[in-house]
Specification:
This protein is α/β, with parallel strands linked by helices. Helices cover 38% and strands 14% of the residues. It folds into 2 domains: 132 residues, Aspartate Aminotransferase, domain 1; 268 residues, Type I PLP-dependent aspartate aminotransferase-like (Major domain) (Aspartate Aminotransferase, domain 2, 3-Layer(aba) Sandwich), CATH 3.40.640. Helix 2 runs antiparallel to helix 10.
Length: 429
């Protein structure tokens, strides 16, 4: 598509957008009665307008049924997670039995590593991306120490080449192959939080398995953002949060994936809890943990009803929108247009004030464009926010802008570029 840097063109793309109607399903932050252009869905998704109604339903159940709400009413809490499983599965390309909503992201990462990080002999190392989100770094470090190993010797980080910001798939594959005899686990993000790079997850999975390792992913920035096929790719396990691209509310419920081929593996360790016990026998209160078959068997505590209700509200919107494929089509065009707009700002300024570090190929990025501002970076970001364009700041000089296909428009991006040009002229000299 040949883009144009004008409002008429942006509006024409919006007029042709089959997903444009979903914008009205979300609340936008506002100041003095004026809505923000919200480009921070990679950090916290907007609130669905239906969220209040869905939570109100559960509050009414609590009010009217009290403890009987676990087994009575239109959506008994005992089985509420099963409604979500059917809606979660298409988002990550899984069977419903392979997914489960529970806990929060890093808690789930720890629980899954208890099962799938099994160091033995010389095979005790973990391969991960350099510059992963700190939660992943801390979780992996602590798991390694828990098993009695030194993180400096046990964690292999794959870093970009000198002068580059993103990883090359061949470099990831080479590191895995070169350390094949020593690796117990390959644990990557799906999309890098800083650059927005979408890693080649099938290639990483294949390389990890060829090395004899287990392969897992943290999909915090991937689930609800890019099309995933965890079952078909033969991924061993994954987890994600719901509050970014899936609009599940601040600190919202997490989700897990466990491939069905692990369901009958009795050698897997677990930190067990009552809610992961066999459902039909749970209330017999017997000793001796017998897990429910499927991802549900990794549950520890009982259903978190209110966080699940918030997630449910958003999942129903995903279902109405056709899940990920239509969203991905729009997302690719949104990010391409944003990249074009930023480059147009450079051209009109007569200098390359902004450097895009997100991959230029649509197949290698999600719904995010990360931009280095070479001069007055924090001042420029603060001016964007002061003028009601809300993105995300990352030290030392990166502005992350994330156009989400469910609620962002092409007009949003044109206006952002228009404002960025004005601010740049005023503060960057």
């Amino acid at each position: 598509m040949i883009f144009e840097n004008n409002l008429t063109f942006a509006a024409s793309l919006d007029a042709q957008d089959p997903l444009a109607k979903f914008r009205a399903d979300f609340h936008f932050p506002n100041s003095n009665g004026k809505e923000f252009i919200y480009l921070c869905g990679n950090s916290l998704g907007l609130q669905p307008k239906s969220a209040r109604e869905v939570v109100e339903l559960q509050l009414n159940n609590w009010q009217n049924l009290a403890v009987e709400g676990w087994f009575e009413g239109d959506s008994p809490w005992m089985f509420y997670h099963k409604e979500l499983k059917e809606l979660m599965a298409p988002i990550v390309g899984a069977l419903p039995a392979e997914v489960c909503p529970m806990n929060t992201l890093t808690v789930n990462l720890h629980l899954l590593m208890v099962s799938f990080y099994k160091p033995q002999g010389r095979r005790f190392k973990i391969v991960m991306e350099a510059g992963a989100f700190p939660s992943d770094q801390y979780a992996i470090e602590s798991q390694v120490r828990f098993h009695g190993y030194d993180p400096a010797e046990s964690i292999i980080e794959v870093a970009p080449r000198a002068g580059e910001y993103t990883l090359r798939t061949e470099d990831i594959e080479m590191v895995i192959a070169d350390n094949a005899a020593d690796i117990a686990l390959v644990l990557f993000g799906g999309v890098n939080y800083f650059t927005g790079q979408w890693f080649d997850m099938p290639a990483i999975t294949t390389a990890g398995h060829a090395a004899g390792a287990i392969v897992g992913f943290d999909l915090a920035h991937a689930a609800g953002n890019v099309p995933l096929s965890l079952h078909a790719w033969d991924v061993d396990f994954a987890c994600w949060c719901s509050y970014k691209y899936q609009n599940g509310g601040p600190g919202g419920i997490s989700g897990i994936f466990v491939h069905e081929r692990h369901f009958s593996d009795t050698t897997l360790n677990r930190f067990a809890g009552w809610w992961g016990y066999q459902e039909e026998q749970r209330f017999k209160m017997d000793k001796g943990f017998v897990p429910e078959r499927g991802a549900d068997g990794w549950q520890v505590s009982c259903t978190q009803v209110m966080p699940m209700a918030l997630y449910h509200a958003s999942l129903l919107i995903f279902e109405e929108a056709g899940f990920i494929c239509p969203l991905r089509t729009k997302s690719e065009t949104l990010t391409a247009y944003l990249i074009y707009i930023v480059n147009e700002v450079n051209k009109l300024l007569g200098k390359d004030l902004y450097q895009i570090i997100t991959p230029s190929a649509a197949a290698d990025r999600g719904a995010q464009v990360s931009i280095i501002a070479k001069e007055n970076a924090k001042l420029i970001f603060d001016e964007l926010v002061a003028n009601q364009v809300l993105g995300d700041w990352r030290e030392p000089n990166v502005i992350r802008l994330s156009p989400v296909p469910l609620y962002n428009s092409f007009t949003d991006l044109f206006k952002t570029g228009e404002l960025l040009l004005r601010i740049s002229k005023e503060v960057a000299g």
